[in-house]
Amino acid sequence: MNIRHSTRQRLLVGTIIGGSMLAMAGSVFAQTAPSPGVTVQSGTDPDATEIEEVIVTGSRIARPQYDGVIPGVQVGEKDIEERLFTNAGDVLNDIPLVGGGANLNGTNGGQTASLGVTYIDLLNLGTARTLTLVNGRRFVSNNSATIFVSGNETGSQVDASTIPVALIDRVDILTVGGAAAYGADAVSGVVNYILKDDYEGAEINIIGGQTFEYQDAGRVSVNATAGAALLDDRLSVAVSAEYSQIDSLLGTARDFRADNQGALTNFANGGLRNPAFVPGAVGSTAFLAANADGIPSTIFEPRIRQVNNWFGGVVFNTVAGSGTSESTQTQPGWARVASAGSSAITGTLQQIPGAPNLCNGGAFSTAQAQAAAVANPRICNFAPSTLPGSNDAERNANATRVFDFYGVAPPAGASDAQRRAAALAILQQRNPTAREYYAANPNTPLNAFLGSFLAGLPDIANGGIGSGVLSRLAVPLRFNRAGDLETFNYGDTSPTTGGTFANSVGGDGANRQDSNVLRVEQKRYVGNLIANYRITDDIRFFTENLYSDITVFNPISTGGLFNGVSSSATENAAILVHVNHPFLTAQNRSMLASAGITGNFTVSRYNEDLVNDTSQTSTNETIRSVNGFDGRFTLFDRDFTWELSHTYGKAETHVEFSAINDVAFALAIDAVDVGGTVQCRAKRDGLSAYLASYGGQIPGTQANVISRVGADGVREQLVFQTNATQALVDACQPLNIFGEGRASQAAKDFVSVRNFFNNVSTQNFTQAVFTGELFDLPAGPLQFAASGEIRKEDLAYTVDEVTRIGATRSAPSATTFAEVETMEGGVELRIPIFGEGFELPFFQSLEFSPSVRYTKLEGSAPQFRDTTGTLRTPAYEGDVEEIYTLAATWQPFDDLLIRGNVSKSVRQPSIVELFLGGQPFFTSSADPCATNNIGLGPNPTARRANCIKDVQRRAAANGGGLTGSAGSVVTITNAAEAESFLNTQFTPSAASFTGLISGTQALLPETGESFTLGFVATPSFIPNFIFATDYLEITVSGALGPLLAQPAAEFCYDFAGSFDDPSAPDNSASIGVNSCAGIRRDANFNFTNGFELPFFNLGGTRVKAINSNWSYSLDVADVFGGDRDLGTFSLRGNIYYLLEYSTSGSGEFDDAQSNEDTLANPVWSTQLNALWDIGPFNARWTTEIQDHTIIKSAGSPIGFESQNILGHPGYMLHTLSLGYDINEQTRAQLVIDNVTNEDALGTNGFRSNNYIDNIGRRWTASVQMRF
Fold first, then answer.
1. Percent of the chain beyond pLDDT 70?
2. Which residue, of 351, 383, 740, 1265, has the fewest CB within 10 Å?
3. DSSP alpha helices (H): ranges in 712-857?
4. Are 297 and 269 in contact (CB under 8 A)?
């Protein structure tokens, strides 16, 4: 039982009956789904012209757009047909209150498990908080049981692509307040797809289209629908089948994307001189502070090219010192060689620095800088970032030299540190930055700056322009497709354009828009059978049966397929090579020697050419079958209806993608010449000798936490590192990495693998609904609707063996098997106070519609042993949670209806959040117990005390001591010795470590508390006009999500009670889960592999908005006069005005960050429709309008100091639809999307890669034939 509910009285399951809803103005009571809906007329005047037929959804949704108590929007069959939608998710794309969600555009954040899915996101609160239904019933989830899904939203989302478009009658979109009718997960709202169940006749619809300008991005759809009433209308059958294909699109296919614009670190930031500088004055600086000089730190530029990686490989020196990240990777060439330098060069290194940088070009290390400064009478040639010197004595001596050489008196009475700062400022004031030098000497070659300011590029002595101050000349080298080395242009850097070590503006670098997937390919096959048979006049059998087969194809996925000089990760680091490698040619060695390389060097390359297939493929099969009975009866002169149904659903996803086997790769690149034949060294030396030469472990691999089935059949978690085996050695094929496409097919087959995972989701859902009248009130009968349901859901997530053990560049994938069972039920009442002849002035009608629902979740997963060997039996038994809506409508007179509701909803923890099977990941964390951190945090006293207790605890478990920074064991027997260890012997490691994110059984449901208030106006003086506006407010609290390493540690040490029991620290009383239990430390007290992190409840989101819908129609002849039929003209609009979108880390909102007025959450969003119907012809113009937006950071508008783009302009996107009935059987339709061919969001959007539409102006045409 959860702590929060430990005293709550449990309710007997038998008394929990569920609430199907009825809450609406007027006298119509909703019938239970899937019975045919009730048609009503807007307004109360029986003689008024009918504006729109509003159909009651069933037992849970009543006239959502205008007459119900819940704000929302409705999309009808006419809208779907005239827009030629071929995917059920597309139907909602331009509705203002629907967020981006997951879709076919892009790759859903690169998450393989979500490739091509369409998840709906109401109010932009997250796809896991939107409940998607079909005919008012839940649908089996397509979300995979892993954290690596779109947005890391591990809920029970439904892929709308599986829903048959051909049978959609309408879509009801309800915002907050629908949970009392439908239950858990409807926190932000409900999307209910209503299918046709009484279709008669047959039709075939053929749809096709593509872009106008490019003749690409095509789509094709063929769907057929047939239905009939048989057996004297007692049997109704409707079937549909549809096929659709949407083509993929790469960034290179669009000029505006192929330019590859992007962000660069601004060379000029921190380079603005201080006009008030006083030489020799304490505290006076030569340059204004970088965060206060009015120069943005990030700028957006066109034509960005990556220059530190290439398809055939870029050559770099191994380096050490400033700007490097040491890597222990050793990848030998001809002879087994090691490098004391680094194979990783990281940091934002400017090609030509605009701010203080090196004192003298080419002097990268501290020792080099000191030697160059001593040899230079001027000390520095360029404005330095630090005063040269390896220690304070050398720096003090250099300070004296500065004051003497430049004739400035040192500050009187200043400390040594102040004298050194003043000397540094003088050097900065008297010497130019590299950019200032370049501006004054524009003929200086770029390579002179690159060689003198970027460590790692091959370089030679500079004997040309600028050699007096720029001592080195870079020789950028890369392998071409033929395997030859060639020089290349590192960039078009000028005095006014930027460039870094990794990226240049222009030049010969790589434009990776070739791997930017703007849209994936999707093929859909969907079949559906709906039937009902009236057994008697009062009892009916109904069935719904769906089969969906969807294949999504991503033409190129580059994830993990690289070895880069900017990566310090072992598996992806640059490849260390010796010039005697047997695959290097004489031309290669000659070029290397000309660039000063005669020993070790590194190669940085893209590896797509080393695998057989770079595509990703996802297939999803979904089956769903609903079977049930419904009926009606009369008792005591009152009418009742009932329904009993069972739903079975199964969704199976299979995803395949390519990867590189780490061990095979390490073996294959370690090649030697054996009698004129290139061979793997391991094959020549033998496995034992080969591994012994590396100390027993082949380099280039990473230890991971994996899961396997133990000898006793129980799954266990352990730290595991892949290594060479005899089978791999026997199969090894030497791999030529020098040049694109140079590897043999045998070598590619050896190093590349095709990984896969399977996810099977199963749902069994039984539901009972009962509605009727209890007794009469003066204003009408008191009506009720009650329901109960039991839902059982199972998830099974499995992967291939290579993926399971983490033998590729990706972290291992956890296997997850679990099930949950949910019991829900509730009741709703319609209580008419005034109406039906019982009226008072200003009380034409008044109704209250209270509803309450209870939900309880239980679940379990198989036993397993964690990394400590502890046997765990995961099980969850949640408390009974209450969901409610208190709704009312008040109609003071004919023209006005006022409505509102107060609601509470919940989202139960998902299977993944409860039972994820330990997903490994790579991470790092600052240590709260480090000397510079132990006095920080919200409670420094508690942090220090808890760190001391933890040192004592771990020392006792380690034989009475811990290993100190000097390498010797420090005895620790009391708190004083523990504190001394922390103060003097503990130096935290900066190394990354592996961890696990695991399901957590101590979770609570998320809660959503909402309030709406609005009105529906049907002014009698404006015939055929209706206007509805609602204020809505929702606060989501206790948001579910994974706890990351650093906050997990901080939460553990910062709460006073965490170490009340030092032998078993526990902070669950503070944050709901015990993050202390997952912290792993080694004998040095450093964080180490095996960190276990839970999901937890913390944080919240608040949305306040106004949603308006309006509709107006007229006969055109009434405007122009005459008897001629000029058709009907209609205007419809939906306006969404966002007042607040804030997030809170604590969930209390005293730390709220404002996120409205951003691109994801614009203040104004509008959809307008103009329709004209005349005889067989119809025309529709749809305009989507979005307001201008700003860019925010941590809830505040970003400033110009941060970047040179601060916001984006608003936009309008237009769609034209034309239709014509050729005859009674044939109809033609043409749709032009993006009529004005919008692409980027203005210049700012172009530079920052924010686009209105990546596809462009396109047409879609259809022919519909009815029989």
1. 92
2. 1265
3. 726-731, 745-751, 801-804
4. yes
Judged on CB neighbours under 10 Å (0-12, 13-18, 19+), 648 is: middle
Q: What letter does residue 342 receive in the DSSP assignment?
A: B
508 with 488: CB under 8 angstroms? yes
Of 1249, 1257, 1050, give the one whose Cα is nearest residue 513: 1249
Report yes or no: 177 and 70 within 8 Å, Cβ to Cβ: yes
∠ CA 678-679-684, rounded to 5°: 135
**Ranges in the chain, pLDDT < 50:** 1-66, 320-342
CA dist., res. 386 & res. 1108, Å (int): 60
Helix (H) or strand (E) holding 950: helix 940-957
Task: Please report the pLDDT score of residue 1247 as a whole number.
Answer: 77
Chain centre to alpha carbon of residue 411: 55
Could you tell me whether strands 780-799 and 816-834 are parallel, antiparallel, or unpaired per DSSP bridges? antiparallel
How many whole angstroms separate alpha carbon 564 and alpha carbon 308?
A: 8
Distances (CA, A) of 920 to 147, 154, 500, 722: 10, 16, 33, 15
Report the candidate in 772, 830, 430, 774 with the shortest Cα–Cα distance to residue 632.
Answer: 772
- How far apart CA 902 and CA 891 sit, in angstroms, is 19
- Cβ(1039)–Cβ(1004) under 8 Å? no
d(CA 1230, CA 1216): 8
Q: How many DSSP H helices and E strands does the chain contain?
A: 22, 61
Whole-number Å distance between alpha carbons of 1190 and 1206: 6
383 in Cβ contact with 358 (< 8 Å): no
Instruction: Give the tens place of pLDDT for each residue, 613-637.
Output: 999 999 999 999 999 999 999 998 8
- In three-state secondary structure terms, 855 is strand
| Residue 738 burial by Cβ neighbours in a 10 Å radius (0-12, 13-18, 19+) | buried
- Residue 950 has a pLDDT of 96
Give the separation between CA 612 and CA 73, rounded to whole angstroms. 48
Dist. CA 730–CA 680, nearest whole Å: 10
pLDDT digits (tens, 9 = 90+) for 909-958: 999 999 998 888 777 888 999 998 999 988 999 999 999 999 999 999 99
Structural domains present in the chain: 3-225+761-908+1006-1039+1099-1223+1251-1266 (2.40.170), 919-1004+1040-1097 (no CATH)
CA proximity to 761, closest of 862, 915, 648: 648
The closest of 546, 514, 547, 550 to 116, measured between CA atoms, is 550
pLDDT at 67: 54
Strand 1189-1190 to 1177-1186 pairing: unpaired
Q: How many CB atoms within 10 Å of residue 936?
A: 14
CA distance 35 to 24: 18
What is the pLDDT at residue 348?
A: 59
Q: What is the pTM assigned to this prediction? A: 0.87
Instruction: Assign 3-state DSSP to the chain and report helix, strand, coil percentages, each to 5.
Output: 15, 40, 45
* Beta-strand relationship, 262-265 and 459-461: unpaired
pLDDT, tens digit, for every residue of 757-794?
Answer: 999 999 999 999 999 999 999 999 999 999 999 999 99
Q: What is the largest CA-CA distance in the chain?
A: 111
The pair of three-digit structure tokens given for residue 785, joined into one six-digit string = 């609707």
Contact 682, 690 (CB under 8 A): yes
Task: Specify the DSSP element, H or E, that contains 955.
Answer: helix 940-957
Kind and range of the H or E run holding 899: strand 896-907
CB 1237 within 8 A of CB 501: no
Q: Which two tokens stand for residue 804?
A: 């399971």
- pLDDT confidence of residue 345: 63
- Please give the pLDDT value at position 568: 66
Element (H, E) at 1068: helix 1068-1071
Among the listed residues 56, 58, 67, the one whose alpha carbon sits nearest the alpha carbon of residue 20:
58
| pLDDT value, residue 347 | 56
